[in-house]
Amino acid sequence: MNENIIVDDADYKTILSKGGRVERFSGSFHNNDSEESVLKPIMNDLKYAKGLLVKFTLSNEDLSLGDIEKFMIKINEITNKDAAIIFGVYYEDLKAGTFKCDILISGLPEN
């Protein structure tokens, strides 16, 4: 059985305490989508982020923590090494071959 890795209010407060502009990214993707294609819309924001809260929702049948490791590695490569990163993983009855990704980005420069 898959275990959820839950994020709570304290995790949100930690990320939001980084100040700056806040952005949210959310989407549904296919298991065979590359990290670059999933993260492309927020690549620039990731470079300047001071805080990230990353939540994955995985299918009960298709994905495991090992499957999202490549996404977290890519996020860590792009994001400033001093940024706070918190992640959670949830399992639901999603359509086979899909997953959801929800990212809260804080500490961005004001435009």
From TrEMBL:
<dbReference type="Pfam" id="PF12327">
    <property type="entry name" value="FtsZ_C"/>
</dbReference>
<dbReference type="InterPro" id="IPR008280">
    <property type="entry name" value="Tub_FtsZ_C"/>
</dbReference>
<protein>
    <recommendedName>
        <fullName>Cell division protein FtsZ C-terminal domain-containing protein</fullName>
    </recommendedName>
</protein>
<keyword id="KW-0547">Nucleotide-binding</keyword>
<dbReference type="InterPro" id="IPR037103">
    <property type="entry name" value="Tubulin/FtsZ-like_C"/>
</dbReference>
<dbReference type="GO" id="GO:0005525">
    <property type="term" value="F:GTP binding"/>
</dbReference>
<keyword id="KW-0342">GTP-binding</keyword>
<dbReference type="InterPro" id="IPR024757">
    <property type="entry name" value="FtsZ_C"/>
</dbReference>
<feature type="domain" description="Cell division protein FtsZ C-terminal">
    <location>
        <begin position="35"/>
        <end position="108"/>
    </location>
</feature>
